[in-house]
Amino acid sequence: MNLPRHDDEAPDGTPAGTPAGTPCETPSETPSEALESLLGWLRRRVWTDTDELRCAEPGHPDGHVCGTAPEGEAAFDALRRALVERYGRARDLARDGAVDPSVTDLTGLPLLAPFGDGVVGMRGWSHGGRWIGLGAVRGPLGVRPVLVVAEGRSDPSGIPEGSTWLGGVLAATGRSLGAPRHGVDWAAVEDRLGTALPVDYKQLAEVFGEGAFDGYLRLYVPGSGGSGSDLAGNALRLADHARVRGGALWEPYEVYPAPGGLLQWGDTEQADTFYWLTEGRDPDRWPIVAVEDDYDSWVRFDGTITEFLYRLLTDRHHPFSTARYFDRHWFESYGEEGVEPDPTG
């Protein structure tokens, strides 16, 4: 994605006369204007086809760039909230000087590497094939807040040998089974729905939680609150809609709990919707059906949800492919967990 450049910007997108990697701020900026300057600096760097990441800080290697995060608790918190709003829930990489030992190159280590053992705290977001980090580091002058953009992982060549389809989705998005899990009372959910659910879907929901693949396909999970993506709650709403207003929108299918009816598990901002066709007693054999916003042309996929998602992420010929647009893939988590490290230490 090639972003437009103003005449007063250097080739890398920074205003003329500003050292590479430093957000442009002026003494006359209000706090909200300073925040927008930081977010603008960040937007110009989060996509892999914008510019090379070469940090201007002495001794720092290529492959990342450090920005100047705002001083003060209120300004730092405003930036953190803005990042959560735009890029979803962050991964906790380090807290109180202790680095998460499970962090790897696939899960955010490039954000920590430039600072060595000086990291006080860091949280990371994966977006557009790069990593975004916000935290605090210790240097000669004490602890300071820092905003970082770092190169992401290389795109995997394929599903790992001996892996499941879920393993392929994990590999494609840089996730691991050791990542924080979204706890679900599946017995209660299935009792509420009146049906068992596919095993691989339950594993997928526990690993990823609520969010969207490539910031595009939103996964419905139980207990996702008021966002409209609670799996059981949405199923009951659709069933009520079909009962009161009729099911013409979904023809030639019916809506669950009608026998063989549609049970929705995802959607996109473009109003594409994704369902299981609940045929037969074995949910692990339910096919996937999907339709665009006009509800005119349905696509059937005879495979599991994890196979569907893996092919969506990696196959350019998939009807809903994101591989046509992104060389690297990520999962944008919604909501926020944990507490941001204090930038003052």
Describe this structure in words.
The chain has 345 residues and is of the alpha+beta class. The protein has helices at 31-43, 73-87, 109-112, 165-173, 186-193, 199-208, 231-245, 305-314, and strands at 64-67, 91-95, 98-99, 119-127, 130-139, 142-151, 211-213, 217-219, 262-268, 273-277, 288-291, 298-301, 331-333. The strands form two sheets. The protein has a seven-stranded antiparallel sheet. A six-stranded antiparallel sheet has the order 1-6-5-4-2-3. A hairpin with a 3-residue loop joins strand 7 (211-213) and strand 8 (217-219). The longest helix is centred in the first third of the chain and has 15 residues, at 73-87. It is elongated and about 70 Å long. The two termini are 37 Å apart. Residues 1-27 and 337-345 have low confidence and may be disordered.
